[in-house]
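On clarity, I found the account of how folds are encoded harder to follow than it need be. Since the whole study asks how a given chain folds, the encoding of that fold should be made plain. For the editor and my fellow referees, an illustration may be useful. An entry of this sort, consisting of the sequence and the corresponding backbone structure tokens, reads as follows:

:::
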Amino acid sequence: MKHILVVNGLEAPMLRQFGCECDRCASPERQANTSVSLLGLNGSDEAEYHVLVDVGIGVVDSLLQNPYLYGRRARLDWLLLTHWHPDHTLGINQLCVSYHLTRQRSGRDTAQVPVWCRAGTAAWLQRERGYEWQTFLQPHISEENEPPGRLLPPLDLGIAGLKVTPVTVSHFGADRSPDDAQQVQYSCAAFIVETAVAKTVLLWDIDSENEWLVSPQTEVERTAVAHLAHADRLFIDTAFWRAKKHRATHPSFDNVQRIVANLQPKETLLVHLSGHPDGAGNPGWGWTNAQWTAAAQEVWQQKQLPGSVRVPAIGEQFEL
């Protein structure tokens, strides 16, 4: 079986902003929140499994254009969630209801879709997406509240040749209990995806304070970094061009450089992009994906950072 990854989206929460005239908002390129699909293809290029990672705005539109999932080929074996924020979960209703109805019309199985997430995310989804949670999803909850820098047990997906290991990360806008905003409840995970021939790391959403990725202090953190290091591909959250003076909800490109210098991937792929948080008149403001790539590659060359860097495209495929 051939394992591939398909990019469904790479945008930050806002996508295009109503009333904005920047280059990014004016670009005709289709946009969707950050998400990928993991697919296993047989000799006839038919999907033997489909694992979807995050389902924000525009993600279902990307799935509709995936040739391996078109029409009766559509399947969804697992939904994995990095965390509960709307730009990673708003598409759950469209995904689940439409998938249920199309399978029902064709007389196929309409069983609930298995979903994996951390306990903090589960608590939020039960509150914010209660209808979908109870009706269409089969929860597999990681019942823990481990701090950042821990490997969690590999997921039991029942897929031969594919290993997915969650890693705890912090994203302070999400790391709070739905019942008490002052109570820390770690809700976010990154994923290490491994096959017999390649390792891919999906490292979003993280905040600017995941310093363990650069300088691990404990044996547990060093173990996590060792598993994240030397990936064939690193998909990494890159919301800002320059680092903020305060703790930020997402890493900047400055943070990314430090993380990459330590993790040493062969290819770095920038995702969770936005042209707006840096502010008008600053680098990063209104940049298209092509501008992000050009600016990042110039820095990469100047600083001789490991491997290559670029922004991927929606629909782009990577062999796992």
In short: The chain has one domain: 2-319. The longest strand covers residues 2-9. The longest helix spans residues 289-303.
